[in-house]
Amino acid sequence: MRALAHAYAEEILAKHVCVTDLLEWFPSITLPLAVFLETTGPIRPRYYSISSSPSARPGHVRLTVGLVEGAAWSGTGRYRGTCSAYLADLTPGETFYGHVRTPIPSFRLPADPTTPVILLGPGTGIAPLRGFLEERAHTASTGPIELFTGCRHPKHDRLYGDELDTWHEAGRVRVHTAYSALPGHPIRYVQHAVAAEADRIWDLLEQGAHIYICGDGLRMAPAVRQALAQIYADRTGDDGEVRLRRLETEGRYHQDIFA
Question: Could you tell me whether strands 78-80 and 69-71 are parallel, antiparallel, or unpaired per DSSP bridges?
């Protein structure tokens, strides 16, 4: 019985095999439509961060979505993300339905436009941060901004690269980019960029900066948090994690992360 449970976990659960896969593998099985529908369950809503400023373009919403596509873990065919593939297949002029919601806790810029902000979001995690940058550029805010972002290679998947370069050159933001697949580049991941700019980050935190982290919650967000905690520990001798929890209590540490 234990061997059977292990096999089920390895061959079915781990590979995300669905009922449709099983019906294709074993065509002799007949399954009434009503029973099949009972196994599917409702589709969970997909939430994407808006990557534009409502002040800059009222009534316009920009989304930054990564297409999930690749060989199915089950070994049968290819897998395409339910919502990301649907959005990717839309053509200009088509209509799709959604709604705008306010996340809890909120993920928005400080009310004071002079407050320094530290933005961290590699890959599509740059989505809401790009909206913040557009907002501050549109309102000519003077608060210092440090952006830590990243991708595999500057020629392949550097999202909003030209726009970020323009804002950087105009002095709107200091951009630090990690490249995980660029030979010779000294910074591979966002947490490494954070460590390299420890003095600047500490200076802004002392000025009351807010931290915003968006992206992968399994690896990136914990690694960035550890790098930030180390900055506190190195400069105060205190437990860095305790200091970060204090920032959360003060409403200065914000996360919009996903697994």
Answer: antiparallel
